[in-house]
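ok trying again, last paste got cut off:
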Amino acid sequence: MQKREIPETMQYNSSEKIPAEWISGRILKLFKIKNKLLLQLTENGKKRKACIAKGTADCYGECRKFLQPGDIICGSGEEAFCKGQEREFQFSTVRVVKASCLDSVESGLAEGGKYALSKQKEYYHIYLAENENCALYVRTKARTALELRKFLTEKGYMECFTPILQKKFYGGGARPFVTHMADTGSDVYLRVTSELALRQYIAGGFDKIYEMGYYFRNGNTSAKYLTPFMAAEVYTAYSGEEQNEKFMEELFHSIVKGVRPLLESCGQCVPEAFLKKIPVCSFEDYFMEKTGISWEKSSEQEILRMLGKQQDCSSEELVKEIYKYLKQKLIAEQKDPLILTDLPAGVSPLIQKKTDKTLYRGYLIVNGATLMETAIGQEDVKCLEEQLRQQETGRTDYPDREMEKYRAFLHANALGYPRTASLFVSVDRFVSALCGIENIGDYQMKM
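nice, full thing came through this time. structure:
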């Protein structure tokens, strides 16, 4: 392989700062036409067209001879409109910032290489280079996480960290991924939720806490919610339902306003509804509006007929069917932001009941998906223990030895655990809603 020799006049001294008025980028594509080089540059996933023309650029000849895709260049010039009324940056001064050690670059994706051209889309680096929406997803997710942390820090929340590998897991009805520790010879679980661990921070005197990271559920995969998924769990001691709903709306608007400039710079519009006050609706009113049936007043038989179920079922099974119908049918049609409160009560040990049939639990629905979930924690210690037992096997007389994993949590509650509001934020769904993504699987890294 022949090494390229770039003239010193084209090499950029890395000890010097790049002037603010200069632009920089990596060359994705390069076309040589008469008296001109046409370039497609990318910087952090954002693409722009540029050209180096004879008589305009100070080193046109050297650029035509030595530049190739993969080089990173910077320089000064001016922006103009080219054919087709597209913006194009015309370089007058060019410097090579980095040029892959000046060796020629060979692509394994070329014909006759290791991978056929038809397989290019299976490789994430190629997908990022060719698909601007994919690159936008990467940038939006990073900005969303940044804005989330910024908002919570300004509100006085402290980021805490809990184990990802757990000897025993809690996660309601979710199934965990199981792995094995070679040193101890024991099975461990990838976390489904950090709820029990974070609530023990509250018991220890930390009143405003959160954790952001990845959660692993062996199932529950949809077009907008893969696993593992990135999410944040936020806990606030001494907070109530109204404060929690207001906090959820404020957080949503803060992230949207923070990410909006990035999206608009890439030609992506943020729906006006995302910036307006979010309406609040009870599940009873929402269910009545969508189905014509009252959740609280109708009999179980009426609701089962509406769901298309022929056989009778227990109250807990009915609630599961309602949630399934809510997520697959009703929420899927809800595009504008909506806060849905007073959700049906089933076996939800950690969530306080509001009435016999409803919970202190709400959803923030946007673009057909639940972006956030808010709840008020269970305060009755005896009721909490009974429901935890029932959730495990469906029996309240579950053996004490099997409740060992809840001992520290139940002990903390018995000592006087404060009323605590929780907020679950799905970062992946948030990004999908902001970018208008329907299938998040198209934007995940292929490994």
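cool. The chain is about 30% helix and 25% strand. The radius of gyration is 28 Å.
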